[in-house]
UniProtKB/TrEMBL annotation:
E.C. code: 2.7.4.-
Similarity annotation: Belongs to the polyphosphate kinase 2 (PPK2) family. Class I subfamily.
Keyword Kinase listed: yes
Polyphosphate kinase-2-related domain residues: 33-251
Pfam families assigned: PPK2 (PF03976)
Classification via PANTHER family: POLYPHOSPHATE:AMP PHOSPHOTRANSFERASE, POLYPHOSPHATE:AMP PHOSPHOTRANSFERASE-RELATED
Keyword entries, A-Z: Kinase, Transferase
Superkingdom of source: Bacteria
Entry's Gene Ontology molecular function annotations: transferase activity
InterPro entries: P-loop_NTPase, Polyphosphate_phosphotransfera, PPK2-rel_1, PPK2-related
Designated name of the protein: Polyphosphate:AMP/ADP phosphotransferase
Length: 269
């Protein structure tokens, strides 16, 4: 099944209900085969990242969004495990500080966008400002619409100045979230991962689905598409994100800079 089926470039007919969180459209048939493919992709992506960094004329921003326990941290570990940290930066956005709240909501985000040759991975992002803020009524509908427009303009600015943006919604079901939260409670070694606030936010599940659907529909463009990644399966989630990145690099076609003829004259003594 092609990635086009999960790439949202226009929100006109987008419905989150049309995408099943437990599907495995890119699976090779079993977990072992999927892990082998993931390893193969990771090795190839590692090479592409090296060339991308050496070329040093473009930037790549990967946005990971999803409900609590959807696997943003796990995706970073599973997909970017072999990337050279020299050209990779992971940014985790938490609740804004007083310093950040004193400025516009995009200020802290713009400061973290990738540099030339760099891949930046946003673990949560500027989309929190049209998700949790909308669900809890901290902004009204008019302000939400203004922010959609501002986010589209912000992403247009980034793409217009050499940044490729890949936005992934890690789509998990309510039942799978329940299982993962219960797993954290049952295992003392996972207690550090459990946050009681996750139970509070779970009560707003339907509101978050509405907010995500609206945000994805309002900010999907051909230049900055959203990808809906079925995430009930951790292995398939990582495989699909890796396949998406492979597709992106195939289109970018990074190349090493041309050799410097002056270096041929040098001798190491």
């Amino acid at each position: 099944m092609p990635l086009d089926d999960f790439r949202i470039t226009s929100g006109k007919s987008f419905r989150l209900a049309d995408h099943a969180a437990d599907s495995k459209p890119l699976s090779r048939g079993d977990k072992t085969a999927d892990l082998e493919r993931l390893t193969e992709l990771s090795e190839w992506l590692d090479t592409q990242q090296d060339i991308f960094y050496a070329q040093h004329n473009r930037k790549l921003l990967v946005v990971l969004q999803g409900m609590d326990t959807s696997g943003k941290d796990g995706t970073v570990r599973g997909v970017f495990r072999s990337f050279d940290p020299l050209g990779l930066r992971v940014v985790s956005f938490k609740a804004p500080t007083a310093e950040e709240l004193a400025r516009d909501y995009l200020w802290r985000v713009h400061a973290q966008v990738p540099r030339l040759g760099e891949i930046a991975v946003f673990n949560r992002s500027h989309y929190e400002d049209v998700l949790i803020t909308r669900v809890h009524g901290w902004i009204d509908e008019d302000e939400c619409e203004r922010r959609y427009k501002q986010i589209r303009a912000f992403e247009t600015l980034l793409t217009g100045t050499g940044t490729t943006i890949v936005k992934c919604f890690l789509h998990i079901s309510k039942g799978e979230q329940k299982a993962r939260l219960e797993s954290r409670l049952a295992d003392p070694q996972k207690h550090w991962k459990f946050d009681p606030k996750d139970l509070e936010e779970r009560q707003y599940w339907k509101d978050y689905e509405v907010a995500y659907e609206a945000a994805i529909a309002a900010t999907s463009t051909p230049e900055c598409p959203w990808y809906i990644v079925p995430a009930d399966s951790k292995t398939h989630r990582n495989l699909m994100v890796a396949e998406i990145l492979a597709d992106v690099f195939k289109r970018l076609k990074p190349e090493y800079p041309p050799p410097n003829p002056e270096l041929a004259k040098l001798k190491v003594t």
